[in-house]
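Field guide to reading this record: the first block holds the primary sequence, the second block holds the structure written as discrete tokens, and the final block holds curator observations. Each block starts with its own label. This record concerns S-adenosyl-L-methionine-dependent methyltransferase, catalogued under organism Catenaria anguillulae PL171.

BLOCK 1 — SEQUENCE
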Amino acid sequence: MHRRLASACILVRRVLDCTTQALPFSTTSTQVRIMGKRGGKSGRGGKKSGNAAPKERQPKAYADIPLTNERFETYYQAQNIIPDPQEWESFLAAFRKPLPVTFRFTGSSSYAKALAASCHTKYFPSMQNVTMDDGTQIDPPKPLAWYPDQLAYQYAVDRATIRKHEGFRRFHQFLTAETEIGNLSRQEAVSMIPPLLLDVHPHHRVLDMCAAPGSKTAQLIEAVHGANAHGMSSGNSGGPAAGGAGASLESLPDGLVVANDADWKRAYMLVHQTKRLQSPCLMITNHEAQFFPHIYDPVSDKPLLFDRILADVPCSGDGTLRKNVNIWKDWTVGQSLALHILQLRILMRAVALTKVGGKIVYSTCSLNPVENEAVVQAALKRCGGALRIVDASSMLPELKRAPGLKAWKVPSFKNKTDNVLYSTYDEIPEDEKVRLIPSMFSTSADEADALQLEHCLRIYPHLQNTGGFFVAVLEKVGEPDLAGKTQYGELPEDFPAKMPKGRRGGAAKKEAIAKAEAKAAAGGAEALAEDETDAMETDEAAAGGVKRKAEEELTDEQPAAKHPRLDQEEEQDEQSMLSSVSKADVTLRRVPSIADSESTSRAETPAPLATSSDVAGTDRSASATPTPVAGADRQTHHNFSSREEPFIFLNKDDKELRVIMDTFGFPENFPVDQLVVRSTKEDHRAIYFTSASVKQTLVANNAYRIKVVNTGVKVFTRRADASETQKVKAAAKAAELGEDALSTEVGDDDCTHRFNTLGLPLVGPLLTKRVVKIDEPSLVQMLLEERPLLADIPSETVRKAIAEVPVGPAVATIPDPNGAGDMWFSMWRAPVSTGLLVNKKERVSLLNRLGVAVPEKFGGVKKYEKQAQEAEAAEVESKGAEADGEESVTASVAGSEM
Ligand SMILES: C[S@@+](CC[C@H](N)C(=O)[O-])C[C@H]1O[C@@H](n2cnc3c(N)ncnc32)[C@H](O)[C@@H]1O
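BLOCK 2 — STRUCTURE
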């Protein structure tokens, strides 16, 4: 039974984004006007916005926001974060300027480099020396000096310039389209830092504790797949994908990435964000990070600890002032105080989950020492010498940073307006002790020196024209002795017994903690984290938290919610593609064609309907059937949460699988046991491939405790004609069209599944049957036409090669035009026509890359423009909703919205 984890979660009215980027907005010196109501005004010159969001999605009106806040300025001056008065002025001035646009080329590095290089030749030359109306000169994007391999860029541009200037407009369209399919990530520069400092290698087990929306997760996945992204299938218009040379399964990394978020809906955002990378080494989970469970290895029965953990914790987010301008008017110190305990608990859980010798990066997009150095200091102190700060000065040497603070003050919780600050815990009046705890305060100068807090990194906006950020790189150098300690530090003897109404504190809290610690002593540090529900409840009080609405909305008592269908669009595209190939085939059969003369017509190669016993409802092995007792069958992962379906590993004797393997000529040693399905039904809609590391975790002894939202790369999709009913319907349709009983989609084989194009690069290089090598003219033809006649394929060699594969599912491959490995496509071979199972977005992207004009039927340039405008309007709207103080119910966070 799932416990209600009422912990230190705080409902924050606005959710701020410290990772992803809004589209550019314009500003005048100290006033920013963000897009208003429909027909509202743009920042520059008050003109009507041409990019107004659709009516129903309009935010409410915004007032001009003065870019000053006395409390903010007084508070941070008192904290002495920037001692030099002149530098302080530059700091404030930088915060008042809009954030430049930054983006990163994603996926495997060879493809990313090729795409970056193409920008230098295709777009940047026409963006040189552009002068705006006010005389400012704008340049094309420049690489961020500190980002490896020049794969991240930054430029300052406003909407007006984008609209007016052809070069910028074309580039903006490119950015929008490539971001949409995932080849680019518009990510704030500072948000790219933590994954880089985590120093991830392909053999590492990595945990991203607070991962959504996932820009850093994507970087971690890329790092696990190594510089050449071997085995990472980022699709065809997304790079060499697995398609890259040597991207066979053998070159899959040993490591894995577990991307976790406490908010279930945001966890699904992660699915979307990481989809493009198609990594079989990724698992997405849904836990409160401070209670992330230990999983025990099925063989050794030891905990599967992590080599690297990213704790990019929920924070107050005042480092995002440049893009979340409402912080200027709303800023208070209260949020930091409320978040400190949660942040410390998450960091302490990270320590418990990390291997000795492993690293943790702790980061926030807040400037507040209470959320930053105080948390790091408390963790260091609690762990004794078992945790240390790493001196990261030699890492990313071009990155300008300020040292961590060694002394700071803690603001009053009761008096938030007068900037009442305390230097030590002893100074606090009795009635403040409910909220302010010792771990928030700085320690003695000697101890701060010993802890080397100066190794923390403070990133300020004036240093390199970025947002504000905090990072600490930590190394676990031993096993900490946590006996007698809580996750948030020792509580003093005089900790008040009286808590605010309805909450438990003092004695009750201590009792709960003692209970948890007794368990911890018996069962190790894990028990401390996992069995201290009582203590957690009091945390909520201590954090000043309001019980999280999201949690109430999504209790286990509620019926299982439907999975968001992120792949729906892609599947619809493919299904419509399939049906059009076959419809065309039925219709076109009346027209004599070259294909007919080449014995490709159905008349000459009749396609018998497969019998039901050959396809659907095959006899599935026992291991593929979920067992009612969790853990009894190690091949089945039953989710802790009833909202998720189980993951069932298929057995190599599975009849359907054997036919699939045989149809495409998979090698004998293909790891069939890493194929997984998510349905207890026998006719699996989709079959996914997971890495050995993911499987090891999913079949671990107590794996049912992990709430897995998503894992695996979808490799096979069930054919629409795989069931008898479908065949009968298809035959009837064909008969209606005056054809004999050939389904509109029936192939002449018993193979129940076809490939999924996105997952194909992972296994494509292994296939020995039904693989057709195509050339560029044929690819262009097959991208321009959803269902070209075989007779229309320009190359005779390709035409013949297609004609040689049996009617039904097949695979097409071609070297990537940018020299980044091979591209792989799921193909349908119909009697007289053929088609690639590629969705429209990918067609457009591929045609662009091949330098072919995108025809109007795919939306052409107009569609691009519309997409760009819609994306822009949607982003402005989401910022607007925040600005309006609209309540965003996510897991307790500020500093985090997409
Ligand atoms: C600052 S954002 C993370 C941004 C993310 N790392 C990225 O780069 O895209 C914080 C995230 O923490 C999640 N969160 C809040 N409380 C949490 C908790 N107790 N455990 C895990 N995640 C939590 C929020 O839902 C939010 O998605």
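BLOCK 3 — OBSERVATIONS
The first helix runs from residue 70 to 78.
Residues 316 and 322 are 14 Å apart (CA to CA).
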